[in-house]
Amino acid sequence: MTDRLAVKGTCQVRNDVRACREGKGLSQGALADALGVSRQTVNAIETGRYDPSLPLALRLARYFARPVEELFHDEAERCAPDPQRQ
């Protein structure tokens, strides 16, 4: 038997990757090189078209010296558990 968290709607994950990158004066290409990914991947993360894997999210958080949950955050009320379904 598995426990499942009932979620209302879909969770929209937002991130501060662009702001952190620009704050360090980096191009998307320079950040991509530092992380070992393509510039297109960095662009897709910044624009919300791609949610990074956990290992990549952790690399980003370490690179910017910020907690992962501060760098990536959801719209809390849309992601709150539905008490009717628990």
List keywords for this structure.
86 residues; mainly alpha; 434 Repressor (Amino-terminal Domain); 2 strands; disordered N terminus
Describe this structure in words.
There is one protein chain. With 86 residues, the protein is mainly alpha-helical. The chain has a domain at 13-72: lambda repressor-like DNA-binding domains (434 Repressor (Amino-terminal Domain)). 43% of the residues lie in helices and 7% in strands. It has 5 helices and 2 strands. The protein has a two-stranded antiparallel sheet with strand order 1-2. The chain is globular and about 30 Å long. 12% of the residues are buried.
Task: Summarize the model shown.
This protein is mainly α. It has 5 helices and 2 strands; from the N terminus they run βαααααβ. Residues 1-7 have low confidence and may be disordered.
